[in-house]
Specification:
The chain has helices at residues 16-27, 43-48, 50-68, 83-107, 165-170, 185-197, 216-229, 283-286, 322-336, 365-371, 386-390, 419-432, 436-441, 451-461, and strands at 5-12, 32-36, 111-114, 116-121, 124-129, 132-143, 147-149, 162-163, 177-181, 200-204, 232-234, 237-245, 248-255, 263-265, 267-270, 274-276, 309-311, 350-352, 357-362, 376-381, 397-402, 409-416. It is an alpha/beta fold and 468 residues long. The protein is globular and about 70 Å long. Bound molecules: flavin-adenine dinucleotide. This is Dihydrolipoyl dehydrogenase.
Length: 468
């Protein structure tokens, strides 16, 4: 049958996994077609994920810092939040990046086809475009179709007050009272932004702890602060019913300490996880195996069960993070180009860009305990950091987890302002096989928050300097 185009490598999905893979493959001399259903490149991360959320969180930080300076002799008055202007600025940031991707694609002669793609055989894909159906034949394919927000069955999804993270990032107005269902990274980041914008926040989390995959001591730093700012945080609690009441939504909460009376909210954000988009890409026509949960299993070269088809990013499993997707994208493109490489990283760092931020990498205590891995830890509290005190934010800690025999770094976590940036040093330490001495003997600039890493290492060696 008719073929409208041919390429060495077809990439399905233009998120951080897909565009990275497409660009790398083109740089390695391949003829590449990149298929994306939306007009803008960049996937979830650039359009409705990492980037717009960080724009709001920056605004949130400015607002709260300005507000808190009132306690230290600088009064700036009550901020006026212009939702429309804030949204415009955020959209501008996103557009700058997605336009940038489009020109990077052009510069590399990556052909972008806008439309919804579906495999029709192991070597062909059909794309529904605005101009009709296009059939592409490829030698290799990389599936980078990403994930979507999980929905809760039975909730009134046609009600304007019910939203997922994409709706929350749309910021049509500043609601008075918002319920956030799900105390994971995405829910808490949105809660943090809206709280700063003036919304009264209630968080409901089914697990016994917010951000369940991070260690309790780290999460506590965040929990302590937000529990003072938010209206309520319910752990071990579920929303068992959600009903429209005019413009509002009424939620029934069941669990530890939850109110017996149903509660009304102007907005309800559902942030209970994400599902891979593996079911709607015709994978079966190419023979690509999809597991029960909808993820595509891959080997260390990012190969699926079909040797010339690869999968990367959210669609091939946890953690669903942009930097994992792009790292895997490079590997897939390089393997296709015949390079000897594999996705073999020590760790994929995790960051919640909340206020305060919490960030962790490598082994956590939760994991060490559940897997019976021997470890030791040392913690440096930010209340002893001069820099943290000068920022009026000494709510933080820096923790190192290390091997009791070799003192090599196995994991680490940071809670506090800029924790996400500070974490990079720990990630590098883990990748380089650094031990406590390496970290303690590295001279860190004073006064910085990064010193807390050195001081945590000194604490581990039992040689802490009393330095502010
Ligand atoms: P995606 O970004 O999901 O891209 C997949 C693309 O494939 C999409 O553009 C989609 O339209 C397209 N597609 C799917 N099916 C088809 C088809 N059949 N035909 C054509 N096109 C198709 N991660 C971080 O690391 N840091 C953060 O700060 C962060 N913040 C986030 C905040 C929010 C609110 C959300 C929702 C996510 C956040 N994430 C963050 C997660 C991050 O966005 C994802 O891990 C990342 O986007 C995954 O990249 P990907 O390339 O696998 O897929």
């Amino acid at each position: 049958s008719r073929i409208d185009g041919e390429c060495d490598t077809l990439v399905l999905g233009a998120g951080p996994g897909g565009y990275t893979a497409a660009f790398r493959a083109a740089d390695l001399g391949q003829k590449v077609i990149l298929v994306e259903r939306y007009a803008a490149l960049g996937g979830v991360c650039l359009n409705v994920g990492c980037i717009p959320s960080k724009a709001f969180l920056h605004a949130a930080r400015v607002i709260t810092e300005a507000d808190e300076m009132a306690g230290f002799g600088i009064r700036m008055g009550k901020p006026v939040i212009e939702a429309e202007n804030l949204r415009t600025w955020k959209n501008h940031v996103v557009k700058k990046l997605t336009d940038g991707l489009a020109s990077l694609a052009r510069a590399r002669q990556v052909q972008v086809v806008q439309g919804t793609g579906s495999f029709t055989s192991p070597h062909t894909m059909t794309i529904q475009t605005a101009e009709g159906e296009k059939r592409i034949r490829f030698v290799h394919a990389i599936i980078a179709a990403g994930s979507s927000a999980t929905r809760i069955p039975g909730f009134p999804y046609d009600h304007p007050a019910l939203m997922d993270s994409t709706g929350a990032l749309d910021l049509q107005n500043i609601p008075e009272k918002m319920l956030v269902i799900g105390g994971g990274i995405i829910g808490l980041e949105m809660a943090c932004a809206y709280d700063a914008f003036g919304t009264r926040i209630t968080v409901v989390e089914a697990a016994p702890q917010l951000v369940a995959s991070a260690d309790a001591d780290v999460v506590r730093i965040l929990h302590n602060r937000i529990s003072q700012r938010y209206e309520a945080i319910y752990l071990n609690t579920r929303v068992t019913a959600l009903e429209p009441k005019g413009d509002l939504l009424q939620a029934r909460l069941e669990g530890e300490g939850a109110p017996a009376e149903p509660q009304k909210f102007d907005k309800v954000l559902v942030a209970v996880g994400r599902r891979p988009n593996g079911r709607a890409i015709g994978a079966e026509n190419a023979g690509v195996r999809i597991d029960e949960a909808g993820f595509i299993p891959v080997d260390s070269e990012q190969r699926t069960n079909i040797p010339h088809i690869f999968a990367i990013g959210d669609i091939c499993g946890e953690p669903m993070l942009a930097h994992k997707a792009s790292a895997q994208g490079k590997v897939a493109a390089e393997v296709i180009a015949g390079e000897k490489t594999a996705f073999d990283v020590q760790t994929i760092p995790s960051v919640a860009y909340t206020d305060p931020e919490i960030a962790w990498m490598g082994l956590t205590e939760i994991e060490a305990q559940s897997r019976g891995i021997p470890y030791e830890k040392s913690v440096f509290p930010w209340s002893a950091s001069g820099r943290a005190l000068t920022m009026a934010r000494d709510d933080g800690l820096t923790k190192l987890i290390w091997d009791p025999d070799t003192k090599k770094i196995m994991g680490g976590a940071i809670a506090g302002m800029n924790a996400g940036e500070l974490l990079a040093e720990l990630v590098l330490a883990l990748e380089m096989g650094a031990d406590l001495e390496d970290m303690a003997l590295t001279v860190h600039a004073h006064p910085t928050l990064s010193e807390t890493v050195m001081l945590a290492a000194e604490a581990g060696l039992g040689s802490i300097t009393d330095l502010y």
